[in-house]
Write a structure and sequence with these properties.
By secondary structure, this protein is mainly α. Helix content is 79%, strand content 0%. It has helices at residues 2-17, 22-34, 36-58, 62-70, 72-92, 107-119, 123-135, 143-169, 178-210. Helix 3 runs antiparallel to helix 8 (143-169).
Length: 212
């Protein structure tokens, strides 16, 4: 039964990670420009945040969930500002025509940034709560059952990001010249900038409506 629960968590992890949002674009960009290691570490940051949400949903930590949702607009604003910074920096960057590591980037920073972007999206915890209600552990489940489900979520999310990273890394040298690389840089930078602006705008509207 634990194996079935683990596999169920694996599917949930993949489903949660599947949508290609700003974090996915950031992982693709880092893998393309800096190599598979940066993409994998970035994906690991997102998978860690997904796992924390899974723990909150799986163990029914209502107090934690409510605290996260209470600050959802502030968290969204922080995520939006960071995405704007990344997007504008990408648009202003002058590419040399080669896929080389970006100056100032470090593996720890890559991990921390995707973790922060994922954890500042409280909608994810609502998605986990809804999915766990339908596909999660049954009533009376043991700690082992919940633990297996959470582990499966982590492995599923990580598996998705590993697939993205290795897939992009396998073709990065084919786009590592001139116009193609510059075009990819502009497209990913534009997506990050637009996503940041949209997230920040939504957060500001939410804060205004809530009176904060």
């Amino acid at each position: 039964m634990l194996l079935i629960t683990l596999l169920k968590g694996l599917v949930i992890g993949i489903v949660i990670a599947l949508p290609v949002g700003p974090v996915g674009v950031l992982c693709v960009r880092r893998t393309l420009f800096e190599g598979a290691a940066f993409g994998i570490v970035s994906g690991l940051g997102a998978a860690t945040a997904d796992t924390i949400f899974a723990i909150v949903a799986g163990f029914g930590l209502t107090v934690v969930r409510e605290q996260i949702l209470a600050y959802e607009h502030w968290l969204g604003a922080a995520g939006g500002v960071f995405l704007l910074y990344l997007g504008i920096r990408a648009l202003l960057r002058h590419d040399s025509g080669e896929t080389e590591p970006l100056s100032g980037e470090a593996l720890l920073g890559a991990y921390a940034s995707t973790f922060a972007l994922t954890i500042t999206n409280p909608i994810t915890i609502l998605a986990f709560a809804a999915i766990f209600a339908q596909l999660g552990v049954a009533a009376g489940a043991t700690l082992a059952d919940i633990g297996a489900l959470v582990l499966g979520v982590f492995l599923g999310s990580l598996l998705w990001w590993l697939g993205i990273s290795f897939g992009i890394a396998s073709v990065r040298h084919f786009v590592g010249r001139g116009f193609t690389l510059a075009l990819v840089s502009r497209i990913t930078g534009s997506i990050l900038t637009f996503s940041g602006a949209a997230l920040l705008t939504a957060a500001i509207i939410g804060l205004a409506q809530s009176g904060h």
